[in-house]
Amino acid sequence: MADLDLLHFEQLKQEVQAEYLKNHHPSFDDISKWKGIDIIYFQEDLRRKAKGNISEKSFYTYFKSNPTTKLPRIDMLNLLSMYVDYQSWYDFKRKNLFANEIISENDNSAENEVEGEEILELVEINNETNVQKTEEKSIENNILQNNNIENQKHIEKSTNEVKKKKNLIFNFYTHFKEFIWLGISAILLAMVLVLIFWQRIFATEYSFTFIDADRNTKITDEIEIKVLKENETPLQYNLENGKDFVYQTQSKTLKMVVNSPFYKKDTIIRTLDPARTKEVIELEPDVYSQTLFYYSTNDINKKREELDKIISNSALIYQVYDNYGVETLNKDTYIGLVTTPTTSLKNFKMIETKVSPETKKIILIKFKIQQDENK
């Protein structure tokens, strides 16, 4: 039955491909060769027609391998079946039966009932066996308990006098050792705590606020900070949503490299003063990066010409995917992607841009379209 289901799934993929090709023209007719923007447009059409979505990871898992060696979950099978105008996965198989294939709605329920009866019988047998073992063990414990009580009384009578003499010496010695170990433990614990919290106890906390040098407003974009220390690996911090950078140190100076997608990279050196623990630092905007992001996400129908002017014809353009994949796009494909109105553009994220000092045009673009599998 599993082999037949895999054959049915191959049939379903062919019908999904044929349905999409009715109104779309991807890079390749073969669905197993789709990637990048083709997958995004297919997801849009699937949401529009079947009111559901499959993730990019699921698409690569079940459509890229041909033939498929395992079936998707039933909810994905039902969604794809509805996309090609069937009521469900079961309805698709029923209307595309192979020779001598029979599908019965009662097969699964009958198998479940038989398995349920067998499990119930095993549970009852195990319960009876456990009750018998418990009763036998209880009888043995009672016998052993009675014997122990008699032996204990005999031993207590013969050793009571000896114990009374030794108890005083033993108790004094035990308590003396406990006090010694308690004192040593307290001293060691205090030393460890001082070593662990030495930095926090004697360090000063400094707070840095980053603002836009042109607009004099607080920066809410993501900021990457690397604190540089002599003879040490840099410490990296990431700020989001306009948070201040808070740093504790005993040092008198602080050297850090500040980088943000829409601001120029800068190395900042500060002389620290415990009397001035809050500072404001200005970052110079990267005009090209901000302009590119604006043209890629606003006034889409009017910005094709502006994008064509600021992007070099030989620019390297990369789209980064969640599954560690990277796709290279040419200039025209990128402009077409960011100026085509789709719901995917609301998840557009600029990662990096570079500008040629000679031509003043953008020569590198790295971006990502976040995927949301819950939608």
Describe this structure in words.
- The protein is α+β, with helices and mostly antiparallel strands.
- It folds into 3 domains: 2-103, no CATH class; 203-285, Immunoglobulins (Immunoglobulin-like), CATH 2.60.40; 288-369, no CATH class.
- Helices cover 48% and strands 21% of the residues.
- The chain has helices at 2-21, 37-50, 56-63, 74-83, 89-95, 107-196, 198-202, 287-297, 304-310, 331-338, and strands at residues 204-212, 223-228, 235-239, 245-249, 253-260, 263-271, 278-283, 311-320, 326-329, 348-355, 362-369.
- The model is unreliable at 107-129 (pLDDT under 50).
Summarize the structure.
This protein is an alpha+beta fold and 375 residues long. Helices cover 48% and strands 21% of the residues.
| Inertia-based shape | flat
Category by helix and strand content: alpha+beta
For the residues shown, what is the average pLDDT?
80
Distance between the termini: 32 Å
Integer-rounded radius of gyration: 36 Å
Strand line-up across the major sheet? 3-2-5-6
Q: What is the H/E string?
A: HHHHHHHEEEEEEEHHEEHEE
How much of the sequence is in beta strands? Answer: 15-25%
Let me know the largest β-sheet.
Answer: 4 strands, antiparallel
Q: What is the number of domains?
A: 3
